[in-house]
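Customer escalation, tier 2.

The customer says the design service returned an amino acid string that "doesn't look like it belongs to this structure." They asked us to rerun it and document both sides in this ticket. The original structure tokens are below, unchanged.
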């Protein structure tokens, strides 16, 4: 269950800000064996676990009401009481475990997706049990694909299971991306090529992020000390830090950048991730992959154009307004829900821009004061 320190970093990951400011992410052409274009997911997870005070120092800025495009400045100390939030998180954790005794399909789904597994179970085993009883649930099958990426040597993650998961949602690019990462983790060259070829044929992209956040939040409503705002914060924090192993595919593209077929596959992948994924980190990885190939092919103008796009995105997401609007979103439940809906409809980048606009408009009201720790544990 997420704690407050993890939540702070999750807010910043919302804008991919820490990814961009990490030395691991500085993108410069080079010819070394270990390209700086490789994105190290372990570094991301270590950043997520940074000290609360360091994180809030990054996310908090001093602003006066006279500044143009003013956004109310909310630190997490103002918004959330540390002790209350930790107590509520533990209560939520206990409640989710209690759902293991339910005979209702919806409750079984919530337990399967969100509870810490009881002794003797794993997340994958829970997902497989649910899928056996209630086949073809898209969220469950997406999570099975995610788990298998991290457990690629698990005998349960066999060809039949993977094919069944894909067949249930074969027009969804998010499923083919999961197959790509699964195959990349196994260093399966033919599997990587096949996954990209099918990925670019997909007709839509739904990574299930918003549906999982909303379902996670809803699943906690049955707890005794229910708080809808805390539920949303916990759900967001747990889901936003789930990242695939991006470095496996960027490494593969680096190793195969001089091979005609593989280089073309990497360009197709990069274009898809940049243009069609709703997820900001996917889009950034897509640009980085294209840069690897353009550099290897000596296509300087294309490399420079991709580099400009990368820098423009970094500069936008790293600016003060985005970080402040993201912090304000945690304080204001209605703003949070608006961001989720915009993410679902338009993707994460446009949702971020709309979030800033909404935050500015709300902050023009002198009576708008969402920061004063109004989120309490009173039952609703």
């Amino acid at each position: 269950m997420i704690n407050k320190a993890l939540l702070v970093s999750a807010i910043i990951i919302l804008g991919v800000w820490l990814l961009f400011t990490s030395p691991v992410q500085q993108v410069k052409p080079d010819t070394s064996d270990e390209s700086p274009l490789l994105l190290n997911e372990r570094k991301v997870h270590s950043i997520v676990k940074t000290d609360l005070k360091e994180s809030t120092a990054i996310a908090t800025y001093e602003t006066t009401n006279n500044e143009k495009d003013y956004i109310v400045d909310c630190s997490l100390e103002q918004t959330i009481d540390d002790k209350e939030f930790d107590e509520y998180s533990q209560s939520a954790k206990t409640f989710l475990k209690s759902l293991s005794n339910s005979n209702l399909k919806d409750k079984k789904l919530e337990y399967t997706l969100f509870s810490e597994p009881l002794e003797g179970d794993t997340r994958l085993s829970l997902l497989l049990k649910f899928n056996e009883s209630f086949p073809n649930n898209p969220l469950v099958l997406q999570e099975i694909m995610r788990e298998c990426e991290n457990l690629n040597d698990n005998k349960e993650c066999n060809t039949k299971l993977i094919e069944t998961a894909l067949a249930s949602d074969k027009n969804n690019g998010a499923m083919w991306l999961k197959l790509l990462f699964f195959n990349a983790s196994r260093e399966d060259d033919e599997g990587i090529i096949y996954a990209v070829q099918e990925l670019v044929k997909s007709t839509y992209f739904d990574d299930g992020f918003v549906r999982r956040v909303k379902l996670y939040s809803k699943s906690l409503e049955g707890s005794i000390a229910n708080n809808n705002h805390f539920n949303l914060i916990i759900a967001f924090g747990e889901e936003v830090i789930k990242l695939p192993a991006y470095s496996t595919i960027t490494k593969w593209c680096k190793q195969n950048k001089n091979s005609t077929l593989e280089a073309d596959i990497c360009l197709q992948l990069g274009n898809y991730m940049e243009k069609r994924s709703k997820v900001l980190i996917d889009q950034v990885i897509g640009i980085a992959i294209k840069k690897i190939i353009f550099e290897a092919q000596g296509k300087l103008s294309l490399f420079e154009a991709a580099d400009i796009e990368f820098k423009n995105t970094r500069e936008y997401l790293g600016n003060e307004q985005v970080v402040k609007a993201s912090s304000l979103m945690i304080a204001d439940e209605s703003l949070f829900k608006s961001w989720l809906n915009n993410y679902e409809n338009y993707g994460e980048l446009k949702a971020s821009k709309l979030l800033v606009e909404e935050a500015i408009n709300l902050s023009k009201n002198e009576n708008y004061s969402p920061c004063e720790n109004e989120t309490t544990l009173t039952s609703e």
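Tier 2 assessment: The sequence is consistent with the input. Residues 4-116+208-363 form one domain. The chain has 21 helices and no strands. Sent an explanation to the customer and offered a walkthrough call.
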